[in-house]
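sry for the spam today, last one i promise. struct tokens for design, 232 residues
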């Protein structure tokens, strides 16, 4: 028997679940691209690039994502005229897009530190070999170092995605009807606390599915990596 609360509010909660998936998937993907640039800057020989990237990572890792979301969504309203003049107000007046921007900047900072640790774990001989082949530093980083670092960073990246899934519930506080937003709406109309239980089940299903898929991919990557290592 399907509980009455799911019959009444289940479809809306499923719509919110899809919004959560969209929000996390896009922010993590864009964050990965930004993280690659930040990682390169963190490892740069130029002090100003290292300092700028360090400040970025330090801020987004050292402050709550809730405060960051408030700063972007509510703070941008303080500059409405300037943003409108620049043609950007359409972006910052949309709660979903503000959350997407905040989550992208936040996860990029964490992913950058994960990649930086993985890059430093790559043997220096890889850089020397690429230089001997005539590759430029940026080519070496993108085509030789970063792919190897990705394998090392694969498990931590999976953990970061799981954290982003759970952190995405913050979007509800700025009127985004993701899974948590739809659940809050259902509770405000029904006063049935069980809706939060069903929302927790959906979050748990999503995290468990991701965990199993990540484990499978990690085993495949490690198997190929081990085979390549033996081939040497």
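last one done:
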């Amino acid at each position: 028997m399907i509980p009455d609360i799911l019959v009444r509010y289940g479809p809306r909660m499923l719509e919110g679940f899809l919004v959560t998936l969209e929000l996390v998937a896009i922010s993590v993907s864009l964050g990965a691209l930004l993280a690659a640039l930040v990682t390169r800057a963190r490892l740069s020989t130029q002090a100003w690039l290292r300092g700028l990237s360090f400040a970025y990572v330090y801020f987004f890792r050292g402050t709550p994502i809730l405060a960051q979301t408030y700063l972007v969504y509510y703070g941008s309203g303080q500059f409405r005229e300037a943003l409108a003049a620049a043609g950007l107000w359409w972006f910052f007046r949309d709660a979903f897009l503000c959350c997407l921007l905040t989550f992208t900047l936040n996860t990029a900072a964490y992913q950058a530190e994960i990649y930086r640790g993985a890059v430093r774990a790559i043997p220096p001989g890889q850089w020397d070999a690429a230089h001997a082949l005539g590759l430029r530093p940026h080519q070496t980083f993108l085509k030789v170092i970063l792919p190897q670092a990705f394998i090392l960073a694969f498990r931590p990246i999976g953990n970061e995605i799981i954290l982003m899934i759970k952190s995405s519930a913050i979007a509800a506080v700025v009127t985004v009807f993701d899974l948590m937003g739809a659940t809050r709406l259902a509770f405000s109309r029904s006063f049935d606390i069980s809706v939060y239980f069903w929302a927790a089940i959906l979050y748990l299903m999503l995290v468990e599915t991701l965990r199993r898929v990540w484990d499978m991919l990690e085993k495949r990557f490690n198997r190929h990596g081990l085979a390549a290592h033996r081939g040497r």
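The chain is about 80% helix and 0% strand. ok im logging off now
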